[in-house]
Amino acid sequence: MVEKTLIQLRDVSRVDSNSDRQLLRAISLTVSAGARIGLVGISGSGKSALMRSIAMLDPFSGELFHRDIQITNDAIPGYRRKVVYLSQRPFFTQGTIEENLRLPLQFKSAKSNLKSASYQSELIASELEAFELAPEILTRSPESLSGGEQQMIALIRALLMEPEVLLLDEPTAALDPDSRDKFEGRIHKWHDASNNLPTNPSKNEKERGGAYLWTSHDPTQIDRMTQQIVTMNHGQLTLTTGQDFNPRNAREIDGLEKEQQVEPSDA
To answer: Under 8 Å CB-to-CB from 100, ≥6 apart: which residues?
Structure first.
């Protein structure tokens, strides 16, 4: 089967406008349908900068393509519906959780696309049950939730948009082990559903395919959740490995990180 390219970066570089520090250095990277990529490196190596650039959240030089089409300014809103960034600290607007879940589906880019997902109460109820969250959470404000609850709601919101690529930047850092396992299980379920096609797929089904990039300081999580490892150092990709990745390498990176002091915002 021909491998579908979802995202392609060509010579992407980024400089911090405040400090003039080079955050990314001519990075070229391809993300294909079905990919499960672990992005590792010490703090300050450029992991979050790369994730945010792929999400088109920060300005950069170079080119970014989605399904072989270069993303320009006009295409960014629609692109962000397909390539969704989840950070360690999710962003919410004022209002209830339900209003926050509905918001992405009300943007102009969603309303103008007849194929866009819609708000489905039954689906929301199922997702909440999977995370053992009470239905009344929909009436609460984001600031009343714990960090773990916010992260689970952020994932539900992301999945409502039926994304093709998830950019997972330390998404379980605030979760206890049980909630982390539920989060990981939901990612597995989404990834499997995105890539398992019927015997005779329709034209729309042939266009399906999901992938994710995951950053984590937990080497066992990287081992569990990914099959390709990309290592970053000083804003460059320095090493790529396949399924034979040894989690000991990530432990060494994590140990090196503890010996260095770098601003977290540059991670």
So the answer is: 92, 93, 142, 153, 157
